[in-house]
Design brief:
The chain has 249 residues and is mainly α. 61% of the residues lie in helices and 0% in strands. α5 packs antiparallel against α6, α7 crosses α9 and α12 packs antiparallel against α13. Modulates RecA activity.
């Protein structure tokens, strides 16, 4: 019996050992509040692994060791920008300047990206023209404005826009008008002017816009065809040309 009690006393359900004054001592394996030798109390999150690193630890800010290399920071900025969508060299240069990267370092990084083909303004312009014409129905005039705002030089933009010929542009204008006519309401005169205005905002010249709307109206209904027949397209084109401003988006 004595042996059995001794074995029981050493098991997982044993009472805690008593100290010299008869009070129970702390259980083994449990740290007390004051024992910090094996705890994570007071350690920063990036050392305990229980949280995210501080901004200084990730960005090389003040107090986090030596500053990061400026060229490395510039490359990371560019790659984040390019991950969202293709960018022109001018767009990337603007992003670097906004983040405080010196012009010298920015030029070095961007020159290298030019060499290896990570940035290519000519390819950007071609893709932009194809995408925006097919997706939004934009004409060459509106596309030229968009490319200029993104820093594409005139020669590169002209080369890309040259792939969009007049026949394709006229066909797109006609398709846009026909799609709008399915839900258009009102008198033919009001519909005509709304549709010409829509094409003008997308950058279509007056001649292309007026002819596209007139042809689409003529094919829509007898009433619309009668109205279209009375239209003097050449006179309207001259009048629109005199009053035309820059195309809208």
């Amino acid at each position: 019996m004595a042996g059995r009690r001794a074995r029981t006393g050493r098991g997982w359900d044993a009472s805690p050992p008593r100290t010299g004054d008869g009070t129970p001592g702390p259980r083994r394996g449990r740290r007390t509040t004051g024992d910090k030798s094996g705890s994570t109390a007071g350690l920063p999150d990036d050392e305990t692994g229980s949280g995210t690193p501080s901004a200084d630890a990730t960005a090389g800010g003040r107090g986090a060791g030596p500053p990061r290399d400026e060229a490395e920071v510039a490359r990371e900025i560019c790659l984040r920008q390019l991950a969202a969508r293709p960018r022109t060299r001018a767009e990337l240069a603007t992003a670097l300047a906004r983040r405080g990267i010196s012009e010298e370092i920015a030029d070095q990084v961007l020159d290298r990206y030019d060499e290896v083909g990570i940035i290519d303004d000519a390819a950007f312009a071609r893709a932009w023209v194809t995408s925006r014409h097919a997706g939004r129905g934009l004409a060459r005039r509106a596309l030229a404005n968009e490319l200029r705002r993104r820093g594409v030089d005139g020669d590169t933009a002209s080369e890309a826009l040259g792939e969009l010929d007049e026949t394709t542009e006229a066909g797109t204008a006609r398709a846009l008008v026909e799609r709008k006519l399915r839900t258009a309401r009102g008198e033919p005169d009001a519909v005509f002017r709304r549709l010409v205005g829509m094409l003008a905002r997308k950058g279509y010249p007056p001649g292309v816009a007026i002819r596209a709307v007139k042809e689409a109206l003529a094919a829509q209904s007898a009433e619309a065809a009668e109205f279209a027949e009375r239209l003097d397209a050449d006179a309207l084109i001259d009048a629109e040309g005199d009053a035309a401003g820059g195309p809208g988006d």
